[in-house]
Amino acid sequence: MAYTFQSRATADLIMLKAAAEQILKLLDKPLNEHGILTVEQIPAALAALDKAVQEDDARRQAIKDEMDGVGESTKEQESAAAADSAKLGPVSLRQRVVPFADMLRRSAAEGKPVTWIAPK
């Protein structure tokens, strides 16, 4: 199941449900059948996504740093770091957000809103 994001400034963007819902939650948007980001809302949306990406990057770096310090850490610390890493998943938020953020930037430049259709 996938969400379809649309803008008259870009081609449609199809995103798997889990990734799309993660992004919509970051933007404090309801997970309705249809939604819209107006041109006026796009700058705030981009700022919110950028902040979330920076926080995700920082968490990933902290986990990496903790796991790189293997000589000083205990097995419990290594297990906790591995569990945290598994929660974050192999694909970073930065990677998930790039195509959507590009759509938002291009839509804002052309003065077009972004809409979406949720899977049924």
What does the model show?
By secondary structure, this protein is of the alpha+beta class. Helix content is 57%, strand content 14%. It has 4 helices and 4 strands, in the order ββαβαααβ. Strands 2-1-4-3 form a 4-stranded antiparallel beta sheet. β1 (2-6) and β2 form a beta hairpin. α2 (42-68) packs antiparallel against α3 and α2 runs antiparallel to α4 (93-110). The longest helix has 27 residues, at 42-68. The protein is elongated and about 55 Å long. The protein starts with a strand and ends with a strand.
Task: Spell out the key features of this protein.
120 residues, elongated, alpha+beta, 4-stranded antiparallel β-sheet
Task: Summarize the entry for a quick read.
The protein has 120 residues and is an alpha+beta fold. The protein is built from 4 helices and 4 strands; from the N terminus they run ββαβαααβ. Helices cover 57% and strands 14% of the residues.
Count of DSSP strands: 4
Helix content: 55-70%
Instruction: Describe the largest sheet.
Output: 4 strands, antiparallel
DSSP strand (E) fraction? 5-15%
**What is the average of the pLDDT values?**
88
Going across the major beta sheet, what is the strand order? 2-1-4-3
Q: Spans with pLDDT under 50 lasting ≥5 residues?
A: none
Work out the radius of gyration.
17 Å
Q: Kindly name the structural category.
A: alpha+beta
The count of helical stretches stands at 4
Alpha-carbon distance between the two ends: 8 Å
Order of helices and strands: EEHEHHHE
Oligomer: single chain
What is the molecular shape?
A: elongated
